[in-house]
Amino acid sequence: MLKLEITDLKTLVENLANLRELYNLANLRELYLDGVNISLKGIEWCSTLSSSLPRLRVLSIIYCGISGPFDPVLLNLRFLSVIFLDGNNLSTIVPEFLANFTKLTTLSLNKCNLRGEFPSKIFQIPTLRELDLYDNENLTGTLPDFSQNGSLRELVLGRMNFIGSLPDSIANLTTLTEIDLSSCNFSGTIP
To answer: What angle do CA 89, 46, 51 make, to 5 degrees?
Structure first.
């Protein structure tokens, strides 16, 4: 049985950095720390990851006790394509700069106590296939017009404060296989 004991994320990442040559970790692409108590604020976990793991593609820190806000230094992780931050009490707004991740395919922020208005620009990321914002009751927003080449396969917006009607352009999401709009405040008919 492997038991991971760390005092904080910075120590873990620094130790990984020290092992780069020995284990060829300079090109670490995936980091899964689900359930590990990290307990860091936004600037701390964002800067630690972005400065030490520049080639990171998959970031999964689910139920790790991190908080917000998001720091733009995350954009240094220019290869990042999958982000799972579920179950962390981020208690922040979702920044528009997340739409600048040009390789982003999955963004999962369910049960994060997000607030404010969700940036509609994120829906327009051409590579985005999965968006999960479930159970963020203080997060508001509306659905944008979707382009013809939208790649969304899963759209989970249940238990949120999204309003308005479903745009007819939702029919442009021809690869959509899952949609959850439960307990939202949408009105009108389904296109």
So the answer is: 160
* Sign of torsion over alpha carbons 111, 116, 119, 123: positive
Neighbours of 35 (CB within 10 A): 12
- Residue 184: how many CB atoms within 10 A of its CB? 18
Could you please report the per-residue DSSP string of 114-138? Answer: -EEEPPGGGGG-TT--EEE--SEEE
**SS3 letters across 15-27:** HHHHCHHHHCHHH
pLDDT-based confidence at 23, cuts 50/70/90? Answer: low
Which pTM value belongs to this model? 0.89
Cis check: omega of the bond before 119, within 30 degrees of 0 = no
**What confidence tens digit (pLDDT) does each residue in 130-189 have?**
999 999 999 999 999 998 878 999 999 999 999 999 999 999 999 999 999 999 988 888
Assign a CATH topology to domain 29-187.
3.80.10
Cα angle 95-188-153, degrees, rounded to a multiple of 5: 50
